[in-house]
Amino acid sequence: AQSVTQLGSHVSVSEGALVLLRCNYSSSVPPYLFWYVQYPNQGLQLLLKYTTGATLVKGINGFEAEFKKSETSFHLTKPSAHMSDAAEYFCAVKTGTYKYIFGTGTRLKVLA
Amino acid sequence: GAVVSQHPSRVICKSGTSVKIECRSLDFQATTMFWYRQFPKQSLMLMATSNEGSKATYEQGVEKDKFLINHASLTLSTLTVTSAHPEDSSFYICSARGWDQETQYFGPGTRLLVL
User: Fold this and answer.
1) Shortest alpha-carbon distance between residue B22 and chain A (Å)
2) Average pLDDT along chain A, 112 residues, taken 10 residues at a time
3) How far apart are CA B88 and CA B18, in angstroms?
4) Using CA atoms, how far apart are residues A85 and A29, in angstroms rounded to an integer?
5) A45: nearest CA partner in chain B
6) Rounded to a whole number, what is the distance in Å from the CA of B83 to chain A's nearest CA?
7) CA dist A41 → A11, A88, B9, B10, B114 (Å)
8) Chain B interface, mutation test: which of A47, A51, A99, most B Cβ atoms within 10 Å?
9) 3-state DSSP: chain B helix, strand, coil percent, rounded to 5?
10) How many C-beta neighbours within 10 Å does residue A1 have?
């Protein structure tokens, strides 16, 4: 069975600082992993995904994530936070039946 | 590409009435769509998987007679909340499985308020 754990329901960073959002997964099969962003009262927008191949995945808006099998992690990073990055971020793993299991989300706050 | 729309974006209805929410994949065909419910400050809860031309598959604890799902075409799935009650008030989000079969593309959500 698959599961996703997002450490830290709230993360605050200063504008221009490094963003690190943590995601650990559990999967009995090679995982397909996703990061989505949700702005208030909106749906989810795909930031990036890992399926196979290169373990460092680059996404939109300057975000990237690294798949580390040995650590069962897929942490999301961005070198320099921008005020517009303030949002809710969800990590998800795809199950064998194409459903997603979502983490509980991390709310990112960017301080001026 | 891979745009999903939902209509309406917001709806207010009286208790006991039914409400239909549409989910459309605008620039791709989706044999599978998903319906989620999201409570304030919480994650998404999968309600059901909608398959074109067949019955939807509901998650445990979701009443199929209350949340009617129809996926009549490759670009449209509908969720009807029947005999809505205030506890059905929530944010409903749909997604469509993309051409790569792995990625879900999400609609903007529908805010339902039942008075």
Assistant:
1) 14
2) 90 97 91 94 92 92 96 97 96 88 95 96
3) 11
4) 32
5) B106
6) 25
7) 20, 11, 9, 10, 17
8) A99
9) 5, 55, 45
10) 8
3-state secondary structure of B50: strand
Place of tokens 């702005």: A39
Write the pLDDT tens digit of every residue in B35-54: 999 988 888 999 999 988 88
B44 min Cα distance to partner chain A (Å): 7
In terms of Cα–Cα distance, which of A79, A82, A81, A77 is closest to A35? Answer: A77
B109 reaches A (C-beta below 8 A):
yes
Residue A27 in tokens: 């999967």
Q: List all residues 6 or more positions away from A6 whose beta carbon is below 8 Å from its beta carbon.
A: A21, A22, A23, A89, A90, A91, A103, A104, A105, A106
